[in-house]
């Protein structure tokens, strides 16, 4: 996953968008400003297809698609197009862990040795909460992971046993996909269900998310979008990912993600209010820079945007980029799902936010 920088929108882009927005009203009498912003940025970023949801104070005000879900068949993106979430999926795993804690089946203070008794002794200080917050000291990727090979999560986890820790557990933040393989295995062990089934039954079903799926390459999934990338400025089909990685384990739609945002906002189902809020409490600062206000919680990042608190995560799988940003002080949430490798969805989300702040 590429590091998200919410300041990455270039001044020239912003000026061009503002210029378009403030042209005489008659010029755009039949065109929504959201359309103008998105179409302009899709062109700049060479995005094939995109779905967007904008939610204000719990009410969806935009939920639509742009461009193509399948170029060869000329199939448009809609609000029901099924698109890879990438690491936006991480919040489902941390929510599932909190659910299991509420059920009395684990504690986030448990050592990973409780679940991986054959793990090296150097892993003993690692607790579940360190896996959830990227503070374990484990290396980012297990050496056994292969995009083109389907294999058990435990095989991937055990391939990392021989590696030294990069730093003392809890000492600092370092993004770690291996940790989410471990969280997935813990969910499986404790619940007695495959992790994807537990998340489906305990999270997606209560939230009403009927079109969210595991990123399995082989099943026929209605409305699934193809992924794309550019090679020497030529659009090509994105390299297929056969492996299922829990760190980016799910596909969803903008319509389903609106339902998830409602579930998060209301804090009434799945988790108790206090446990929902633990997910986005700052746990570790992600940088040594004195002026940085970027923290990681449990499956969420916490920062400020133009002085306003935001809770967010972005995601990237080959051929797909996504962003889910909650502008807490404004009661605004923006979800961008794209099927293009070069997309910068966070830049689109913040450009939209600037527009909605002024409304």
Architecture blueprint of SSEs:
Elements (H helix, E strand, L loop, with lengths): L10 H11 L11 H13 L3 E8 L2 E12 L4 E2 L6 E2 L5 H13 L25 H6 L19 H6 L19 H14 L3 H13 L5 E2 L13 E4 L2 E4 L12 E3 L1 H13 L6 H7 L4 E2 L9 E2 L4 E5 L2 E10 L2 E8 L4 E7 L6 H14 L1
Helix pairs in contact: 1-2, 2-10, 3-6, 3-7
Characterization of the model:
The structure is a single chain. This protein has 359 residues and is an alpha+beta fold. The longest helix has 14 residues. It is built from ten helices and 14 strands. Helix 2 packs antiparallel against helix 10. It has a nine-stranded antiparallel sheet, with helices on both faces. The protein has a three-stranded antiparallel sheet with strand order 4-8-5. Strands 6-7 form a two-stranded antiparallel ribbon. The relative contact order is 0.20.
């Amino acid at each position: 996953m590429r590091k998200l920088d919410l300041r990455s929108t270039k001044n020239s882009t912003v000026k061009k968008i503002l210029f378009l927005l403030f042209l005489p009203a008659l010029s755009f009498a039949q065109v929504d400003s959201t359309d103008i912003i998105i179409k302009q940025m899709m062109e700049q970023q060479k995005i094939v297809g995109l779905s967007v949801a904008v939610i204000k104070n719990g009410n969806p005000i935009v939920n639509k698609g742009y461009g193509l879900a399948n170029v060869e068949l000329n199939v448009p993106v809609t609000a029901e197009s099924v698109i890879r979430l990438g690491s936006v999926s991480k919040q489902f795993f941390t929510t599932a862990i909190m659910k299991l804690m509420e059920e009395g089946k684990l504690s986030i203070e448990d050592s990973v040795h409780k679940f991986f008794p054959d793990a090296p002794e150097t892993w003993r200080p690692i607790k579940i909460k360190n896996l959830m917050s990227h503070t374990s000291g484990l290396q980012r990727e297990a050496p056994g992971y292969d995009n083109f090979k389907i294999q058990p999560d435990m095989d991937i986890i055990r391939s990392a046993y021989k590696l030294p820790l990069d730093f003392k557990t809890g000492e600092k933040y370092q993004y770690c996909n291996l940790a989410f393989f471990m969280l997935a295995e813990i969910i499986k062990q404790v619940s007695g269900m495959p992790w994807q089934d537990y998340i489906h039954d305990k999270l997606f079903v209560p939230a009403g998310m009927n079109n969210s799926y595991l990123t399995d390459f082989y099943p026929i999934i209605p409305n699934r979008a193809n992924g794309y990338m550019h090679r020497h400025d030529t659009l090509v089909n994105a390299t297929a990912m056969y492996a299922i990685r829990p760190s980016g384990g799910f596909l969803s739609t903008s319509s389903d993600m609106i339902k998830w945002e409602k579930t998060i906002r209301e804090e009434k189902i799945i988790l108790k209010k206090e446990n929902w809020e633990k997910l986005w409490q700052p746990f570790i600062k992600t940088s040594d820079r004195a002026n940085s206000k970027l923290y990681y919680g449990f499956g969420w990042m916490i920062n400020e945007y133009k002085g306003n608190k935001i809770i967010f995560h972005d995601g990237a799988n080959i051929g797909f980029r996504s962003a889910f940003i909650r502008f807490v002080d404004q009661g605004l949430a923006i979800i961008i799902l794209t099927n293009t490798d070069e997309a910068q969805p966070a830049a689109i989300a913040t450009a939209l936010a600037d527009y909605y702040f002024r409304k």
